[in-house]
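Saturday, quiet lab. Running sequence design on the structure tokens for the scaffold JK sent over.
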């Protein structure tokens, strides 16, 4: 099968970035070209499926992860939210990833994708969105911005959903305070500071093992993905969230570690799973008409990371 979706390429600073505007504004590939041997930093899209989960990465907006109970209440009004992915009982990852975006190239090493979304799939959200990608000397600057266009104020959240290649020794390090445990859904049921064995990102958690599909909080906005066999790492910094009422420090991230497969996810997000139904609605930001929310991440490539021999 050949995909009808064209890839738009950026090449600069020893990197190659492929974008697929018409497939959810997604990323097809992010590759490091230095040292004579190209290395995929995100698992590349094969170009044979339209399932967004096969992309290298996509943005989550106007909210991330899952919403339970068939919708949410805001300011005394109930808003229905329908499931939006086959096999998922709950709506997931917003609706920006399900729509076609338009692309412009304001500079040689920069690309911007735009979306005007108006109550997609019968949902309540009307917004304009902008994704921006810039290749710089040490990596990639990536941002997602959303502006509310509806008459009624609504809660918003943002996130990024990159898929990283998984080698036997791959590990993730991040400073976190706790994790939300869940049932089989997985909808959070309780928060704990006692991180389960093999889940502790503070201690370089392995990315091979039993399922993790859980949100962490107390995150300081910095994380590192290490591939010791390659002598390679990617470090990320999520800047304070830009909101109408001032900056908000990073707080939340999510790990998806499937028991099998070639890839895993570390997701910088602004809210935990099902924040719409958690006490205090952590991480959600209410936007009135014309107000804007922005997430910005700096991804840095480290080719001097310690190398170890495979076991």
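Result came back. Writing it out in full:
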């Amino acid at each position: 099968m050949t995909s009808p979706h064209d890839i738009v390429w950026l090449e600069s600073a020893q990197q190659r970035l492929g974008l697929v505007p018409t497939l959810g504004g997604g990323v097809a590939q992010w590759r490091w070209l230095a040292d004579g041997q190209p290395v995929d930093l995100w698992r590349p899209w094969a170009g044979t499926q339209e399932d967004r989960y096969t992309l290298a990465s996509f943005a989550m907006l106007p909210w991330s992860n899952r919403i339970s109970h068939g919708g949410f209440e805001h300011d005394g009004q109930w808003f229905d939210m329908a499931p939006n992915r086959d096999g998922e009982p709950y709506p997931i990852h917003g609706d920006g990833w399900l729509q076609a975006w338009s692309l412009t190239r304001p500079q040689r090493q920069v690309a911007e994708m735009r979306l005007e979304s108006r109550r997609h799939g019968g949902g309540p959200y009307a917004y304009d969105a902008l994704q921006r990608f810039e290749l710089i000397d040490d990596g990639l600057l990536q941002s997602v911005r959303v502006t509310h266009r509806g008459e009624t104020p609504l809660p918003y959240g943002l996130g990024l959903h990159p898929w990283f290649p998984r080698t036997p020794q791959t590990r993730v390090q991040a400073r976190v305070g706790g994790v939300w445990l869940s049932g089989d859904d997985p909808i959070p049921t309780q928060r704990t500071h006692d991180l389960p064995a093999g889940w502790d990102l503070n201690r370089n958690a392995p990315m091979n093992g039993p399922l993790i599909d859980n949100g962490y909080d107390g995150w300081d906005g910095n994380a590192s993905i290490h591939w010791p066999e390659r002598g390679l790492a990617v470090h990320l910094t999520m800047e304070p969230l830009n909101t109408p009422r001032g900056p908000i420090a990073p707080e939340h991230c999510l790990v998806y570690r499937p028991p099998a497969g070639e890839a895993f996810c570390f997701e910088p997000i602004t809210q935990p799973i099902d924040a719409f139904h958690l006490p205090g609605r952590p991480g959600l930001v209410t936007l009135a008409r014309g107000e804007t929310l922005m997430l910005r991440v700096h991804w840095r490539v480290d080719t001097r990371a310690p190398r170890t021999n495979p076991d």
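Notes for JK: The two ends are 38 Å apart (CA to CA). The mean pLDDT is 95. Ask whether to fix the surface positions before the next round.
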